[in-house]
């Protein structure tokens, strides 16, 4: 891994002084001559040295700590990912610190800064729904700092990405509903700026078309927040206003699917007899609700474990980023329960 | 807050030199005379200065980062606590890092070390089910390092604790079942080494006795893991083997309550007509399952927010530990849903 940006070592080598002299000169510590300070600062400027590279370059040994930046710890999928991350990290002698962005880009940037301040060896990231600009990661990637993205991946070159096969999961879920005889399937979609939402949408669309059914964009309704409340409100509205009544819902996530189920029951519809429902993520509660909810299981534990194995291989220089040109893709599995079988 | 162990500042004051001289002398940096190094090291030894106090004492400014050590992020209650913590921390200009112990004391000790390595300003802790020895916290408390314990609190002097009123929550839940006409109430209890389990058990017992019913220890069955699987197995066994059949279950947590509900349904019992069920914690799924589950809501968000306000007041020296001799206790609220009303 090459460092494209100058480090304190580079400046020290150039000026033939020690790294600690450079570091102290940059921090205006006493005991360094004004002449040296001037030279160091001029060269740092010229070589595009930035203060937040200090943590990376001064480090002599590893901290044996990795950082995880995730949207929400309460999300069942992310909590299983964390279990996979910790399993691998602890077994390889690393500790794990977590920060939660709560889907806010400001907190995500602050999390990156926290990680850098704390001299961690590498980070695992699933970015926030608000994130469209990736400069805060790009700066680090350009310096060769180890980062592995999982689940939500950026549109950047030279990144290592671990994803699940959202397309196939959605395709299978929709095909299953069609095989059960459902024909008028509404898709409760996720935020359209996330690649995972786009892939699930695409899986739904292609399954319909492959079975000779027309794809109607009006039957794709975005559930931005992905809560049960939102899913319930949107579904109630659909049942009230759609002239052609749907006979199934394929939801981008389980919370929206539960909301749809509650709305259907409230409208006097029977699930699965009148309306079939399939969710995505296989939250714990899928097998607790009545009827039990069919859902596409994502290999959260495996995703966390795989991403961590790769990250630690990068940290320990056993592998390099260019060995991961294509995203590592993990299989999903449709779990058929009562909500979609008639 | 008094530091019972010597800090670099104490040594500096005693020798009438700067803190940075002491620090550099201890680290054998060049530019400090051998005589000064000798004096510093001798005094450090004499004053019981320990190297791992460096992080605490060398710090000139705060890192504006607090650490949170919790058993499991997937637990709905803890995730709401985290939201409360982050709300207050970010609004007061602090960042938050989390570590999860997965209920293992080895990881808890490692988490404390990670926090110390990372120069955080204070920690919020809910300890693991395995933790019976608190030395890893006591060392820090003795140095005056700010720690606030929440939910699971240690049997230590001079700690600041924030808890919910588990006793009253359990008492109310049991009284509610009695008022609904249920008489043979089984308590699915939590691990008996946790104070929260003991308090909930005590609330159950006192409510029975206050209503003139006999307390029978055989009707208290421990669910150590608190999973729905475990709750289901234990309840099936109870329904099969108890000569006097129970007509209600008060569970120490919602997962066990859901397990009990599934076991009752599987045994052909109707909930709430034949058997009433109340859980504890008010997980999200309580309102999603059928029948909806009555549960004791704990103020997770408020607990996180309160604990953080206190921690930051300690960090900023606006308050001191001796102002918190008694635990700060927050009210619970019984949410009555369909599972316990007949």
Automatic annotation (TrEMBL), chains A, B:
Gene3D superfamilies, sorted: 3.40.50.2300, lambda repressor-like DNA-binding domains
Matches recorded under SMART domains: HTH_LACI (SM00354)
PROSITE patterns named in the record: HTH_LACI_2
GO-annotated molecular function: DNA binding
SUPFAM superfamilies from the UniProt entry: lambda repressor-like DNA-binding domains, Periplasmic binding protein-like I
UniProt cross-references to Pfam families, sorted A to Z: LacI, Peripla_BP_1
Protein name: LacI family DNA-binding transcriptional regulator
InterPro entries documented for this protein: HTH_LacI, Lambda_DNA-bd_dom_sf, Peripla_BP/Lac1_sug-bd_dom, Peripla_BP_I
Domain HTH lacI-type: from-to ranges: 6-60
Organism annotation: Algoriphagus taiwanensis
Keywords: DNA-binding, Transcription, Transcription regulation
């Amino acid at each position: 891994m090459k460092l494209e940006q100058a480090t304190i070592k580079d400046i020290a080598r150039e000026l033939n002084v020690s790294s600690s002299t450079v570091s102290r000169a940059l921090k205006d510590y006493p005991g360094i001559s004004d002449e040296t300070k001037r030279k160091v600062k001029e060269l740092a400027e010229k070589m595009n040295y930035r203060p937040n590279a200090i943590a990376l370059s001064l480090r002599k040994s590893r901290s044996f700590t990795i950082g995880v930046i995730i949207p929400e710890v309460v999300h069942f999928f992310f909590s299983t990912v964390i279990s996979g991350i910790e399993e691998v990290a602890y077994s390889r002698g690393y500790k794990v610190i977590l920060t939660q962005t709560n889907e806010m880009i400001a907190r995500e940037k602050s999390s990156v800064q926290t990680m850098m301040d704390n001299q961690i060896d590498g980070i695992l990231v699933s970015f926030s729904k608000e994130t469209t600009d990736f400069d805060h990661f790009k700066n680090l990637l350009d310096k060769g700092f180890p980062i592995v993205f999982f689940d939500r991946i950026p549109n950047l070159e030279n990144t290592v990405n671990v994803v699940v096969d959202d397309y196939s999961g959605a395709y299978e879920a929709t095909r299953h509903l069609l095989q059960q005889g459902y024909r008028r399937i509404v898709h409760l979609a996720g935020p359209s700026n996330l690649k995972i939402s786009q892939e699930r949408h695409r899986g739904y669309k292609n399954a319909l078309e492959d079975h000779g059914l027309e794809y109607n964009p009006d039957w794709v309704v975005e559930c931005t927040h992905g809560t049960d409340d939102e899913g319930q409100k949107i579904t109630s509205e659909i049942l009230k206003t759609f002239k052609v009544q749907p006979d199934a819902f394929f939801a981008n996530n389980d919370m929206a699917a539960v909301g749809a189920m509650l709305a259907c029951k409230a409208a006097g519809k029977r699930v699965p007899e009148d309306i079939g429902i399939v969710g995505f993520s296989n939250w714990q509660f899928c097998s607790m609700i009545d009827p039990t909810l069919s859902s596409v299981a994502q290999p959260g534990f495996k995703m966390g474990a795989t991403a961590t194995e790769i990250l630690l291989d990068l940290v320990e220089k056993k592998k390099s980023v260019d060995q991961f040109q294509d995203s590592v893709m993990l299989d999903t599995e449709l779990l058929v329960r009562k909500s979609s079988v008639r």
